[in-house]
Amino acid sequence: MAEPMLKAQNALPQGEALVLGDTRIDVLPMPRMTSLMPGPGHAALAKALRKHHGLDLPDPGGRVSSDEGECLWFGLGQYMLIGPAPSPLLAGAATLTEQSDAWTSVLLEGPLARQVLARLTPLDLRDASLPLGATARSEIAHMMGSLTRVGSEAFRLMVFRSMAQTLLHELKDTLEAVAARQAL
Amino acid sequence: MRMTCPLCGARDLREFTFRGAALARPEGDDWNEAWHDYLHLRDNPAGESREYWAHAAGCGAVLLVTRDTRTHEIFAVEQARGAGA
Ligand SMILES: [Zn+2]
């Protein structure tokens, strides 16, 4: 009997979800995503990642990207390789877990983005503590998530796929409220 | 109250979960008064206290926090990993 093929799918319809006050909520395409967990000590993983993907292992709160892909700090002892399929040769240095459809990624971009997030996360979103390229694990609307500053007014938010609709709902509601205040 | 996670920096209290007093684990596997004390009896210190906190909504690290229960002043935050936890 033929093996059934299971195809990973984005948890949300990809593309624009809402634009208000020049600020956009966009569901991002689902990239290939693999968590890398090196266990105690990460020197071997740093070496293997450099050798096989040309990426440095980021420090806590950091993100390293190149044309080939991105490595994102994702918490204690955990990194996310985003973009490329992981080289099997990484497996000697870390536990690799396929995460592509396990997380949902939404981009919030525009002049109201920071005000929207200020209502949803306890993070300090100012430039000094969250500069361009910085990433943080924190609460987003009471959900544990990952937040990365990807532009001067752009933030990429990630939550578990089971919470995708809730994230989108909270973002839309909050953008509506912030934009309405702006229009007063 | 804000705590400074060694990995994440200063964060709001709501990201952290209290995980109990940091106590010395008794020697040996046989039940005795020391184990009873370790499992069930707690002081209620007014002053300096050593506690475990999990940065549950952040990086996931378990932290060893030394703080003053009267003033909420925090003296030290370190990763519990490697600190005898
Ligand atoms: Zn932390």
UniProtKB/TrEMBL annotation, chain A:
Superkingdom per UniProt: Bacteria
Protein name: Sarcosine oxidase subunit gamma
Gene source species: Pseudooceanicola antarcticus
From TrEMBL, chain B:
GO biological process: tetrahydrofolate metabolic process
GO terms assigned for molecular function: sarcosine oxidase activity
Gene3D superfamilies, A to Z: Folate-binding superfamily (3.30.2270.10)
Protein name according to UniProt: Sarcosine oxidase subunit delta
Gene source species: Pseudooceanicola antarcticus
